[in-house]
DNA sequence: TATATATGCAACTTTTTAGTTGCGCAAATA
DNA sequence: TATTTGCGCAACTAAAAAGTTGCATATATA
């Protein structure tokens, strides 16, 4: 199945992996040590993240360092953009409400 | 089960619902008409979105208008913030690379 | 070259999720 | 008051996802 980034970040373990490697590239083994699960389970999460290109492998001998792909993460940001206007409006309305309450107190 | 916003937005139908009601509040029936699925299926998606407070109900007689809760969507934005620095760095590096290539062409 | 290590893939089990049908309740309307 | 309409909840089914064990492959090292 073709993975999409929304499905990829819906899993807490995968989010944790992303947070870790955003700081520093890690091998699958290094990741598995951080979580209470088998290496193979982590490996499956890596596969999901790799398929949707949120991470990129760098082969160094028999080790594979996975890097965070910031560019792909921006797709979320783009999706979120459609709602930004909404929340700015809603907060402006809140401001107005607060101003009104303030006025009434006088 | 306690829903979280990441799981909530991982479903395409739920993302479509959010996009719709960000523009205008809708009743479950109105939403169901937009999608090729039963009203009950939509109702379950509404439940998920409501439980994690991405939408808010407004009761009008026997109808319920669901509103988009922009404030909750910002949690997503906050989570994304931890990666912003990463992608700025990665893009700066890309800029440098492009500059280097440009230099070499001279 | 034999062995240890790092990793991915396949098969299987368990859990979760998406969707369905059927039902009950409350508000609107004839 | 009887009926229709809007909605949520429960039980069930089907599909997908998370995790396990076992195995194969490639690189490093004794």
From TrEMBL, chains A, B:
Classification via Pfam families: HTH_20
Domain HTH arsR-type residue range list: 1-88
Alphabetical keyword list: DNA-binding
One GO MF term attached to the UniProt entry: DNA-binding transcription factor activity
PROSITE patterns for the chain: HTH_ARSR_2
Keyword DNA-binding among record annotations: yes
PANTHER family: SLL0088 PROTEIN, TRANSCRIPTIONAL REGULATORY PROTEIN
Protein name as annotated: DNA-binding transcriptional regulator, ArsR family
The organism of origin for this protein: Pseudarcicella hirudinis
Lineage summary: Bacteria, Pseudomonadati, Bacteroidota, Cytophagia, Cytophagales
């Amino acid at each position: 199945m073709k993975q999409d980034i929304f499905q990829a970040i819906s899993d807490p373990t995968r989010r944790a992996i992303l947070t870790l490697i955003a700081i520093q590239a890690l091998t699958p083994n290094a990741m598995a040590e951080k979580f209470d699960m088998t290496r193979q389970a982590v490996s499956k999460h890596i596969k999901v993240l790799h398929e949707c290109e949120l991470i990129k492998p760098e082969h160094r001998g028999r080790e594979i360092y996975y890097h965070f792909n910031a560019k792909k993460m921006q797709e979320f940001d783009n999706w979120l953009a459609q709602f930004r206007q909404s929340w700015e409006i809603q907060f402006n309305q809140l401001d107005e409400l607060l101003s009104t309450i303030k006025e009434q107190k006088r």
